Fold each of these.
Amino acid sequence: MIYSLIGYYSLIFGLIFGLFLFYLSYKNFKNSILLDNKIIVFSFLQFFFVIISFLSLIFSFVVSDFSNVTVFNNSHTTKPLFYKISGTWGNHEGSLLLWLLVLTLFIFIFLVRAKNQSVKYRILTLVFQQVIIIGFFIFLIKTSNPFNYLFPIPNEGLGLNPILQDPALAIHPPILYLGYVGSSIIFSSVLAATTLKMISSSWASHIKKWVLISWIFLTLGILLGSIWAYYELGWGGFWFWDPVENVSLMPWLALTTLLHCILVLEKKSVLTSWVIILSIATFTLSMCGTFLVRSGILNSVHTFANDPERGLFILIFLFVLIFLSVFIFFLFHKDDGRNSYNFFWMSKETSILLNNWFMMYFLSVVLIGTVYPIFLDVISSQKISVGPPFYHKLLIPFLIPFLLMMAIGPKLKWIKSNLDDKLYLISLFIISILLAFVILKNFSQNILINTILISSALYLFFITLRDFFVKKYKKISQNIAHFGFSLLILSILFNNLFSSEIITNLKVGETFENSETKIVFESINQKKEKNYNSIVANFNIQNSKGEEDTFSPELRIYNQPVIATSEADIKTTLMSDKFIVINIVQNQDFFNVRYQVKPFMMWIWLSVILISIGGVISFYKK
Amino acid sequence: MKFFRFLIMTFLLISFSNLKADNYDTRNKITKNLRCLICQGQSVYDSDSEFANSLKILVDKKITEGLTEDQIYKYFKEKYGDWILYDPGLNKNTYILWLLPILLFLIGGAIIYKNFIVRK
């Protein structure tokens, strides 16, 4: 009760401080020699009150205060403490409060850290950020107040969706939001810099750090979501081209493009318009993601809580932001064309342009694939599905030249260059093709496209691997990230090609056997936990090499809410994962058993971590 | 003679199990491209709902009837509509879906070539 009160009024205070900040900024902007200390103090206070509000929501969850509607809807007394806490952001209201928390945190850090930037620039960035923050305050208080009362107070809550009761998913939203919301700073500061006509090399080096922060968190956030989908959804896949996954991928693609493009701006002060557009697009895409997920428009495995009216608010808010940025762009930004816009074919500039070109293509495929079915449904009420085959057909052919350019591009110098050492570039290329042939010699399906794909990924792999050992090659962050990407593509390809799978129905005591695998369904027993009961099935699986493993996949029946889930049992080794999951077949006494051997699973995760390490190194580099 | 019979039997068995394995792969491939209509964004292959299971059996039946992959897709499309197929074929509803990204790619390339590249 008391926590809800504190939480709610903290939000109101936060909103009031936001309005004060507009006033202070206005006064300070007119007379801008020094940044008014009050501004920093007030943004700290705003952040502080949002933290208080957030903490009171956490406390409400911890003590299971069911007078709070959010807690009632998403918690239960028998839930372990960890999931009571993570339940705070496992729902719509709480996750928006988290959005707000990150928004206010970032602008405060920005104000403190950007000391050597001009005062006007810092104030304007704050103002634009406050527009977003106030929008979210109103959104939260009007449509999604996390502190609504419930009377009479129920004794028990409804519980948290069991598939959200998971460690990876507990930390996935905060990390992802740091990435999403981090792009708000890029958005605000690009608008400020455009207004003040200070988009230049020095601005580029300053904003690069913020781009990197968002990018690192977004990468890791997507990774965590993917790992969660892999072991929790129980299908053995890790990326489904599901709309909710796509909306997290889109800002990532835009951000990655921006990251490359800013390198050119940093060096040559060109492509200013493009950088502005990309920065605006990144945040807009993050907002669109929130809109699409929260409005319930999307049909997806990940949409747990949604409400059309909230969608309308976000949509209007989104239009306001887009209108504001387009207005500023056309009013203030004059591309004076004094810089030479001409690049030579063989130059780093051109290779980055080509990168941007392809990245924008990938982005447009994902964007169109995600929203087109919605539009078609609205316009002609025809329902179509756009699934993996669409994305594969449009993306894979373009991935091949993209991989090759990723290998060559970083070797080119600014302005104009020639490739020295053509010999090793060509010989590595030939080696890659030969190796791809050897790997695929036993395959009959799609041999051509797979060989080409694997060759180009191998090429990038070898080139970047070699560069680690070349002394004069100093761009370690870039090299790690590109190396990680080649590893990612290779692992995904090998994982796809060499996975094997057995689906069968077994009773207790039965055995399944084929030429490679012997599955013995030994026994079942029951287990009682605080928040669920489960049936544990024990399997002994032997492969052709005689290696034996025991597995115990579970069927869990959660008590609050009553939902049955399958928990896969996964044996992870460096080179391959063994994955088993069971399901009940209705009115039958056997279980549906699905056993998969998935090579290079671990490498998919590791390579994404490598990619983000590249970002971290670049962040700490002077 | 006995030996001969044994040989034929083994041969039949092997070829039969091969056939079965092939069918099995085809079935997985097909069910991966079918949406489970009552689930939230799962394919028939991934789902264990009753609907999905009955569809799996139906796919098996169609394969043993000798229908090709495309014929099976066509059959499901006629029965349940486009919504069930994860691969939206190229037709008047999807021209924009398939061609717009490629068009954008070409436009992007033209812009880069025209504005940025030095011509000799």
Amino acid sequence: MVFSSAVFLFVFFPLCLAGYYLIPKSLIAVKNIFLLIMSLAFYGYGEPKFVYVMILSIFVNWGFGLCVDRFRGKVSAKICLAGMVVWNVGIFFVYKYLDFAIINIDRFLGFDFELPGFVLPIGISFFTFQAMSYVIDVYRGTALVQKNPLNTALFISFFPQLMAGPIVRYNSIAEQLTGRSGGFDLESFSYGVKRFIIGLSKKLILANTVAVVADRAFGAPAADPPTLLTVWLGAVCYAFQIYFDFSGYSDMAIGLGRMFGFRFLENFNYPYISRTITEFWRRWHISLSSWFRDYVYIPLGGSRVPMGRLIFNLFVTWMLTGVWHGAGWNYIAWGLMYFVLLAFEKLVRIPERTAKTPLLAIPYRIFTIVCFLFGWVIFRASGLAEALRYLKVMVGLSVDGQHFPAASELSLFYVKDNWMILIICVLACTPILTALTTRVHKGGARLVKTWDALGTVCLIALFVICVSYMVNGSYNPFIYFNF
Amino acid sequence: MTEQKKKKNKSGLALTLAFLIVVIFLTGWNADRFVAMMKTDLPGITPENAIWRTGSWNTNFTEYFRFRWELIDLYGLFNLSVGKQSLDNFDLVKDGEGVMQKTQEAFDRQQAEDSVKTLSASFAERGIPLIFVAQPPRFTEESFPVSAEVHFFGGRDPVFLKALTDAGVDVLEANVEGKVMLKTDMHLTTAAEFEVARQIAERLETLGIDYRDAGKIFDLGNYDSESHPFYGNLVKSAGRYFTLGGDSFELLHPRFKTDFTIENPESGKERSGDFRHSLMNGMEDELEYVKEPYWVLDYLAYPSAMYTITNHQQEDGCKILFVMDSVAMRSVAYLSLGAGQITVIDPRGENGNALLSEAMNTGDYDAVIVEGGGEEFYFSMDLN
């Protein structure tokens, strides 16, 4: 089930909301059980058989958590931790990478193994990482063990963040599972509504609209004849699509969480305004990058190590980040591209230099934008060869001896058809509205009142427009459901 | 509580209330439809079929959503306000004249050519002439939408038509003066389809086929006309305001005596009576809550793969096989007024292609007519 569907908004959500608030606020445990049941129903919608995979994962990780806690300080705790990693990575590998591994073993070693063809359970990358963070946090002593399996189950399966994050860290939510107020809090709820509407608008109005141009430029369903303008426009549109799609989902997740009394950490912070690649990764998919930082990069030694070791640490972290996104060479290449760029920035101390030298900051900002656009091309393409072909056209090189024109009637039509949406996308990628609101709030009372009223009216109008998109639209799954 | 917090709470309250009102209102108004859908769909659900069964829930739910049309109007208006010309994954594009056009996959010319040539040659072997009817083009060069790189429904492909002519296929390039196309729909106007039927009848007569009373049948003075406000399939997902207003759909009822039976051998269903009660009223099985009839489907028996029209006034008249998709339904209805029997085959229907192969090898006809609009028609008609 997706948040941007009529079945979610007009069936599941009202039932869930009504059920939750009808349970007396003192009965948090009952509310949690209710949310758990609804979360499993949410996950089971579509592919009920994967509910068993998740339930199994929940109970095994809960068990590992208990063992790690019980044997704290002993070798057995380390063995349990290792067992937990093997179990989770194993599940992850079987469902996500086994086919890819076999294809490559067959290709490079000349075998002819049959592909098992497992279907990827939606959200496995997210709930597996959440489960791992729980056991690791318990092992490290940064979180208390959860003795109630139902609470562990709710932490892992809570529907707002279940399928595409943010990857919630156990220690950030442990207290809220049992200690939050179960009553209706208008401020929190209205903030949730606001974030939900913003997320829904990002997904339905912006991401889905620019996705059409991106899909056509990248050749789905049928490739348009490439021109320089088409491929650049396609890359820009995909950059907007993936940002509004994913950050829209995170906004909705954070908003829904708030409506049920939970506070999730932010997952995006205007990544496209970054001055450097290092900054980009501090602002993009924060829950994943901080997961890799805390559970891979720092345990490997982090930055305060000799140069060779630092390069190795970065390599491992970014290789894994690429692999996490999908079973394909293009994802690995995408991860390695960021490894090279981040190693370069660390070695040359780019963030410090750009902060000190404004003359360097502007060209480096442009370089950063070009880098993440190239990165998204590698990420979006159906394979490495396709990505290279696309990148060649972008930089004006010939492909198979064929040169491509600067623009065509069709590419100009795309611009004409989407220029307003593209301007909205550019504005929505920046904190301009937030800055404006802050400035207005420093002004007179009447201005603040008018501004807030206008904001409320705009949000309500946006919500109704989103409903019109929802009722009209076909099924539009989120990009990150695939990961 | 501070003054600022109070104000914040006021706007928060307004937002929360408005959000909940919209959700509760639309949930309440549509609950009966969802429950009805569940009653039909839930009993047969299994873990194996769940993915596609539940996958259709959202589509079905939104398809019959109360206030759907008002919301779609809003969708169209919003897109108009942001300067959009294309909608629905580039499926629909508004051309330079404000008329909606539908994009389609690149036409597989070779397969279409091969299929029509095979049909023509097979019938020619049995001495049955085949006429390939090229519809009046939907758009002119001047209004050609977007660019030559995108393929649109309803264009005329001169290379394809020349290839057919060169292969000996009898091609009738139907041309109609005046308003040919509905602005909001992929189909011709009724007057244009009527005119195409007249040109087909003329060609049948030229071929020496016993087509009767053409003078009377194709005189518009012998018809009562009835008009209905109409928003066709090209605005069903764009709303009524995205394009240049709606259309008027014309129904033509013969004033002279008519007596027909239309029967579908696969379903066993049949309708008999005069023109209006047999060849029209095709929508009589429509769902109760479909408030705006899609008038194109009022004719004949869409979407059956095969049905037969018998004209009891001309039982010994000519027998025609008409291979078509929905673009010729009204032409067939009016053409049947001077024929003895017309068998309609739509290759897109279930077994459509097999039925066509069978008709090609064993059917007893005086003439065969082929008229299709979309690439799906040619894609389905795979006779090689």
